Amino acid sequence: MEKKSEKSAQGGSALGRYFEGVGRRKTSVARARLSASKGKEIEMTVNGKPYKDYFSTVELRQIAENAFHKSNLAGHYKVSAHVNGGGINSQAEALRHGIARALLETDPELRKILKVEGYLKRDPRAKERRKFGLKKARKAPQWAKR
């Protein structure tokens, strides 16, 4: 799914190639686009902000970066991502899933590494719906015999 994006007629005629991957977790959806980069640090923007501003804690940043670190491609790609839905933690995990899928398009040999880590599998766990007559999904009101 290799794509090409063209700059507008005013901006020039340069073609930029990117690889795209969609990641999901709970109700979060992340669309990650990878394009070539020559830096040594990870360049990532999430919803127009630098990822260090978007993901405030170190743990969330590490979750988002994990696919790069495990595949030893930490500075090779620049990431532009759009995430929505869910909470901040599930957005970070959805972004990791999207990045892993996009990395797989760049090099199919990475499948073994990413699959062992579990980054290619969509985590199906989500909150169970509340049933009528119950207080939560499974919690029933207190019952007394007498």
Task: Characterize the structure shown.
GO terms for molecular function: RNA binding; structural constituent of ribosome. Residues 127-146 are annotated as: Disordered. α2 packs parallel to α3. The chain has one domain (2-117): Ribosomal Protein S5, domain 2 (2-Layer Sandwich), CATH 3.30.230. A six-stranded mixed sheet has the order 1-2-3-6-4-5. With 146 residues, the protein is α+β, with helices and mostly antiparallel strands. The chain contains four helices and six strands; from the N terminus they run βββββααβαα. The protein has helices at 51-54, 58-70, 88-106, 111-117, and strands at 2-6, 15-25, 28-36, 43-46, 49-50, 77-84.
Short description, anyone?
With 146 residues, the protein is an alpha+beta fold.
Q: Which secondary-structure class do the elements indicate?
A: alpha+beta
CATH topology: Ribosomal Protein S5, domain 2
User: For the largest beta sheet, what order do the strands appear in spatially?
Assistant: 1-2-3-6-4-5
Strand content: 25-35%
Task: Specify the number of helices.
Answer: 4
Q: What CATH architecture do you see?
A: 2-Layer Sandwich
- What's the mean pLDDT score? 88
- Quaternary structure: single chain
- Radius of gyration over all CA atoms, rounded: 19 Å
* CA distance, first residue to last residue: 66 Å
GO molecular function: RNA binding; structural constituent of ribosome
Pfam families: Ribosomal_S9
Region (Disordered): 127-146
Keywords: Ribonucleoprotein, Ribosomal protein
